Amino acid sequence: MNCEIARRMSEANDPALAQHQRSCPSCIVGAHARYYEAPPALEQKIRASLRREAAVAVPWRWIAIVASILLAVSAVWNFTLLRSRIAPRQLLAENVLSAHLRSLNGPHLLDVPSTDQHTVKPWFAGKLDFSPPVKELDGFPLLGGRIEYFEGHSAAALVYGRRAHIVNLFVWPSAVSTPESSQTHNGYQMRTWSASGMTFWAVSDLNPAELADFVALYRRN
Amino acid sequence: MAFDSARKLALFEQSVLPHLNAAYNLARWLTRSGPDAEDLVQEASLRAFRSFGTFQGQDARAWLLAIVRNTCFTFLKKRGDQPAIEFDEQAHSVADESPDAESALLHQAAVGSLNHCLEALPLEYREAIVLRELEELSYKEISEIARVPVGTVMSRLARARKRLQQCLEGALR
After folding, report:
1. Do A155 and A148 contact (CB within 8 A), yes or no?
2. Crossing angle for the helix pair A40-81 and B2-15, nearest 10 degrees?
3. Measured between CB atoms, which of A23, A36, A54 is closest to B97?
4. In terms of Cα–Cα distance, which of B88, B84, B62, B61 is closest to B73?
5. Measured between CA atoms, how close is A178 to chain B, in angstroms?
6. Cβ–Cβ gap A35/B134 under 8 Å
7. What is the pLDDT of residues B35-60, one digit of tens each?
8. Considering the entire predicted model, what is its pTM?
């Protein structure tokens, strides 16, 4: 017999069923087995640990949100930095330096060996879609010129000398206008500037002051 | 936000904590140890609070008891208690209680050794009896808590009752 029914009927003072309730083992369990009540201290402990848990839960969630936002911002920032600054400028500087080093190591320093700007300049005329300003400079004799290739377009390389040193001056047309700046790469001096719709890069193993003189002289003439 | 968390805590304290006695009683019967039961109920309460988001307003007592039960079983298994039930065909086929046995069960001594007999039951039987007779849960609720079919709950209860009866009779002899 179902205990619960028996229990209810026993409550309704049915003696036969009260008898069942007392004799059926599971009814006895329900009626007489010990019911362990939670110690009062346990509830206090649990309430305290819940409060700790709830207090801890908040900052962690917010820390996680803030951290992921920071991470996203820094990722975008780095990406932008990489794309807008480091990639074009740094890569270009390295390309320019490579071109300078190649010209020194290989047989290909001069396509048109001439100290005369009126020989060098016309030589470029048939080979480039722009006309690089070829100048003769005091103290930096013009040695000649050749064609280079940077970032999908042709560039003029004007070659000047200074004692045993070589200065490569790369020129190509560019819409971007940047102020003059200098940097050092592996001990090589580089100066770049833009003027009249062209970008200039001067590279040499000269000391910084002499290269700055060279650039100042070139730009003044 | 802090508000969410405070509301969650208040809701939890209001709907789940009233069943702490049921939780402790179950843990106490399953582990047969007061200190273990305290630790496990505390652990289970924290677990329940963490997964309170998945609680969808069903019976909070049955929900909490399921978590307590799992916490206890995990603990007992880790400790090496084997919750194995040997199939007890003989206990299952014991004849219906005789009038003698009935009157014998009325004896005070039988009730006195009841707690001992209940503790001596195999874990799964004890679980079923405690949930059924002390918590008065339905077969369906017990089957959900113990994660077994209703039929298994019924046969466990039947075997548990037979064993209890035998144990009580033995205690009187």
Report:
1. yes
2. 150
3. A23
4. B84
5. 49
6. yes
7. 999 999 999 999 999 988 888 778 89
8. 0.51
